[in-house]
Amino acid sequence: MSYAPINFQQKLGMFDEQWQPKVIAEMNDYQFKIVKIEGDFVWHDHQDTDETFIVIEGNLRIDFRDGAVHVSPGEMFVVPKGVEHKPYAENEVKMLLIEPRGVPNTGHEGGERTAQNDVWI
Amino acid sequence: MSYAPINFQQKLGMFDEQWQPKVIAEMNDYQFKIVKIEGDFVWHDHQDTDETFIVIEGNLRIDFRDGAVHVSPGEMFVVPKGVEHKPYAENEVKMLLIEPRGVPNTGHEGGERTAQNDVWI
Predict the structure, then answer these.
(1) Which residues of A touch B (CB under 8 A)?
(2) Most buried of the four, A36, A120, B8, B60, by CB within 10 Å?
């Protein structure tokens, strides 16, 4: 049988739009999603789950109500559940998100940044 | 408050031993572990969970009973639960493993490759 790895750059090359996470793999009930972002997201939190960010390209800043973290390529950060956060990218950031299937990108905030969920690429 | 990202290379620089996964982060009840491997692992499977491999350096081969997958830096692969597999690295591979907390590296096979679980770095 033939097995193929999942290549992040190959998947990132398949779309241009920002703020639209694409699922590239699942592990149990968790999804791996790639996304391109630039500019400011909305303040939100996820009441039921932590959320993992792994940066592939660019420099990500995640703002918290009491500080911020800068995440560069080759680095990761786990935002604990229930903690308000706001991702920000001065220039485009390409990254991997890991979280349970079905988690909306804007938590329960909604708004124009809310992306369609469970879109595979 | 001060927040710090987790840097894969910085963590990998803190140890030399092979086949000893080190936990660097948790997301809910899942753990992110870095590990250095070289040579042959044992055939094993995990009856209750998928297992994710993300290669940071080197070229990983995962053998299956009916084929193999080659995973290079910037690539990932999810081994489905219950599927027998055997990681192999001709030269040292540095990689990230993601799986639920408490999963033994050799499944239920045991043996000399069985590593201590839940070791943080």
Answers:
(1) 1-9, 25-28, 30, 32, 49-52, 56, 62, 64, 66-72, 74-78, 81, 98-100
(2) B60
